[in-house]
């Protein structure tokens, strides 16, 4: 059975993502990574934890109108999503793959879209 391996990131909608990134850079001293979002230093947790801001009109969080979305790192995306589906959980049939990993989504009982991320083997410490 697959298991969670940590928090993959926090995703927030913003009226002006560029301005919000600048505010966090200015007031908290964190710098955006090469991929455009904040990436925090590694700890004993496997992989990076990411903070990213999305435009308010993004469809990425699904149709619920939620303002934030959790992203959890996992070690076996397909196994976990199959298990959730078998348990009657609303699992989005869409999957996305990138050089840094695979993504899938489910909806929790409160109607929140939640993202699962299986980092690729090339992802540091994945």
TrEMBL record:
SUPFAM superfamilies: Glyoxalase/Bleomycin resistance protein/Dihydroxybiphenyl dioxygenase
Signal peptide segment: none
Matches recorded under Pfam families: Glyoxalase (PF00903)
Entries under Gene3D superfamilies matching the protein: 2,3-Dihydroxybiphenyl 1,2-Dioxygenase, domain 1
Protein name according to UniProt: Glyoxalase/Bleomycin resistance protein/Dioxygenase family protein
Domain VOC positions: 6-119
Keyword line: Dioxygenase, Oxidoreductase
Gene Ontology molecular function terms on file: dioxygenase activity
Organism per entry: Acidisarcina polymorpha
């Amino acid at each position: 059975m697959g298991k969670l391996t940590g928090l993959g990131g926090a995703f927030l909608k913003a009226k002006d993502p560029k301005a919000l990134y600048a505010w966090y850079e200015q007031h908290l001293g964190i710098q955006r990574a090469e991929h455009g979002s904040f990436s925090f230093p590694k700890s004993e947790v496997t992989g990076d934890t990411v903070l990213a801001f999305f435009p308010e009109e993004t469809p990425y969080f699904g149709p619920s109108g939620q303002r934030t979305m959790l992203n959890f790192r996992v070690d076996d995306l397909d196994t976990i999503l199959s298990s959730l589906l078998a348990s009657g959980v609303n699992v989005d049939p869409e999957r996305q793959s990138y050089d840094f990993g695979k993504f899938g989504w489910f909806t929790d009982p409160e109607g929140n879209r939640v993202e699962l991320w299986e980092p690729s083997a090339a992802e540091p410490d994945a």
